[in-house]
Design a protein that fits this description.
Two copies of one chain form a homodimer. By secondary structure, the first copy, chain A, is mainly α. Chain A has eleven helices and no strands. The longest helix of chain A has 26 residues, at 127-152. The radius of gyration of chain A is 20 Å and the shape is elongated. At the A-B interface, helix 1, helix 7, helix 8, helix 9 and helix 10 of A face helix 1, helix 7, helix 8, helix 9 and helix 10 of B. Chain A binds a DNA duplex through helix 1 and helix 3.
Chain lengths: 221, 221
DNA sequence: GTCTATAATCCGATAGAC
DNA sequence: GTCTATCGGATTATAGAC
């Protein structure tokens, strides 16, 4: 089935070229001609495979977000739910969770543009943005806020949101800001040593944050 | 000078409308007709005042980044440099710095789109992006990394970068991700109680991070 | 300074050959 | 499945009236 294989190759080349260009210049700023030229394909084939530029964007977003929609993060939390039951095991849970979550965001082999493009789409209003938000942002924030509630018993929404942000924001910012990563490291890959350090700090900060939010009652001081 | 006043009013209306639209849909996706229509002005006047769409973008970026280019953050650090000399005063310095920096990012009265647009421009390659990076990102990261070096004596670039990220990333992410703020709070304004909590956590985390990076030698474990 | 009509360019989509 | 020529529409920029 050489024809089929070639067809898949064509689609993949279009998706990866389009995603990289979309993330850097914005979806509207990139022309189908430019995508065709840079991927070595032609304009007509975009409409044949994806029905047009909008269909190609859908395919690109599916590609960029697949590991965030297959439920693997939820499954990871379920598999380690036992560690949430005893406060003595909370730091161990946080270590494991940060390790898994930060790897998903920063070193899962996906191109750097994926996070940047998802972020870009989230900024605009409309149906695509709402879909991406529901399936990714909202489910992650909901999951981590649930972990916070289970660990602390604190029902305060803002406390949960703050704790979630202090846990994930260094990684999310790096995943979303591919330009800074390139400018700092000089490459398209975040150095492993940097990921290792940032995981360490995030784990310790998250553990400290638990205590602070529980004891200081930040909402009342 | 009614004519002059009107002219300034026209320019301001164009800048604010354009900035808001640029941030949400991407610079290329917004047409000069749309800017003219939504601001109540006309297309011709954009070219009269700004020389075209590119000139308008320059003006918008100047407006969005003015407090980051006037040296007030550097001046703030200079004025409190005494607190860096004695480790006993470091937490006090961090409290004051986080308070000042987070207010600059999150509640200085500037519209929410400013951070989002600056971030968008930083993602693309080219002269404008490099200029924004040098004048804003690089100067902030350099300033805070310098504070880290002065406090710890640690010359490691990655350690300084990690510490800087863990200090600023919650605020930067909120400043840059206006869509999340709107979705979480339901308004265009970040709730003061949320800013207060996030400042608190950031200060404590930064103080803890100092100790960790100094003692644990994260680069070697 | 402000506005409108128009010129020159470029885009997404498609028809139809191969 | 792949490619090219072309159509209709939209965009920026501008010329010129007021």
């Amino acid at each position: 089935m050489a024809a089929y294989a070639n067809s898949e190759h064509t689609k993949k080349a279009l998706i990866e070229t389009a995603g990289s260009l979309f993330a850097e210049y914005g979806v509207k700023a990139v022309t189908t001609r430019q995508i065709a030229k840079e991927s070595g394909e032609n304009i007509g084939i975009i409409h044949y495979h994806f029905g047009g530029k909008d269909g190609l964007l859908d395919a690109v977003l599916d590609y960029a977000s697949e590991e965030w929609r297959d439920g693997r993060l939820e499954r990871f939390v379920e598999e380690h739910a036992k560690l949430l039951e005893n406060p003595l095991w909370h730091v161990e849970f946080l270590e494991k969770f940060v390790d898994y979550f930060y790897d998903m965001l920063l070193s899962d082999g996906k191109p750097l543009w994926c996070g940047t493009l998802i972020f870009q789409i989230l900024q605009r209003e409309g149906e695509i943005s709402d879909r991406v938000y529901e399936r990714i942002s909202r489910s992650i924030i909901g999951l981590i806020s649930g972990i916070y509630r289970q660990m602390t018993g604190d029902k305060d929404t803002e406390n949960a949101y703050c704790w979630t942000m202090s846990l994930i924001s260094p990684a999310v910012l790096m995943a979303v800001d591919s330009a800074s990563v390139k400018r700092f490291s000089g490459t398209d890959k975040i150095p492993d040593s940097l990921i290792h350090k940032i995981k360490n700090i995030a784990t310790i900060n998250a553990a400290a944050g638990l205590t602070i939010l529980k004891t200081r009652k930040l909402n009342n001081d």
